[in-house]
Structure formats: C-alpha cells, structure tokens
TrEMBL record:
Protein name: Two-component system sensor histidine kinase/response regulator hybrid
Gene3D superfamilies, alphabetized: 3.40.50.2300
GO molecular function: kinase activity
UniProt xrefs under Pfam families: Response_reg
Key words, A-Z: Kinase, Phosphoprotein, Transferase
Signal peptide: none
Entry keyword Acetylation: no
Residues bearing PTM 4-aspartylphosphate: 60
Biological process (GO), any one: phosphorelay signal transduction system
Organism: Zunongwangia atlantica 22II14-10F7
C-alpha cells in the first residue's frame, strides 16, 4: 500500500522510541506523509490548535500532564464539525479503555509496540478509504 498521497499526521507520545517507530512505519507506507510529533498532551493540543489540517491523530493514552483521553476531547472540540480520526496508542486494550476512549472521541486503537500491519490497516481505514 505505498501511497503517494500527501497526508498529515499528528503523533503524540512521550516515548521517543514509539515516535521513531511511528515515523519509520508511516514513511514506508506513505513516503509523502508529513508526520508532526508532540511529546505530551498539552503540546499535541497546541500543535493541533495552530494547524488543524491533519488527516489523522495518533494519541498515546498515558501521557504526562494532560492524558490522551483529555487531549483527544480537546482536539475534537477544536476540530468542531470537521471529522478528525483519533487513534489511541496503548500497550493495554482493556474494555474499560475502549468505552472511555469512545467517550473522549477516540475512533480506534493501535496496540503498542507499533507494528507495520496494524498501522497499515489504520491508514487504509481512516485515510485511503475516504
């Protein structure tokens, strides 16, 4: 699924290794992707507020300060009526997280560690099948 379609992705994670994996995998899947990173929820919200024209947000749930649930709620609020898919990143995919995530406006989940095939499915689902 190597796409030449230019896309913009906001990746929010406090773990630099995870951000590196995200950047590496997405760059292989979509070489023209622009990947903007933030290391905490507050920074992610601020980046989104300044430039809300993202195609996808990848959001770690356990962040210092403002957690992924709260950051996702704020991003959805900033986006207003513009649909912006938010995919949570978490090592745990418990039922409680799923329901709490839906309430926060999270559309889907990717398990950590970030892997090629699940990331490819997310990109197909939310970006390339629009």
């Amino acid at each position: 699924m190597k796409s030449q379609k230019p896309i913009r992705i906001l990746a929010v994670d406090d773990n630099l290794v995870n951000l590196f994996l995200i950047r590496t995998i997405i760059s292989k899947l979509c070489p023209k992707a622009e990947i903007i990173t933030a290391e905490d929820g507050e920074e992610g919200i601020e980046i989104f507020r300044k430039s809300a024209n993202f195609d996808l947000v990848l959001m770690d749930i356990q962040l210092p300060g403002i957690n992924g649930y709260e950051a996702s709620k704020m991003i959805k609020k900033i986006a207003q009526n513009r649909p912006i898919p938010i995919v949570a990143l978490s090592a745990n995919k418990m039922e409680d997280m799923l329901s709490k995530g839906k309430l926060a406006g999270i559309d889907d989940f990717l398990s950590k560690p970030i892997l090629f095939e699940p990331t490819q499915k997310i990109l197909k689902k939310y970006i390339f099948n629009k």
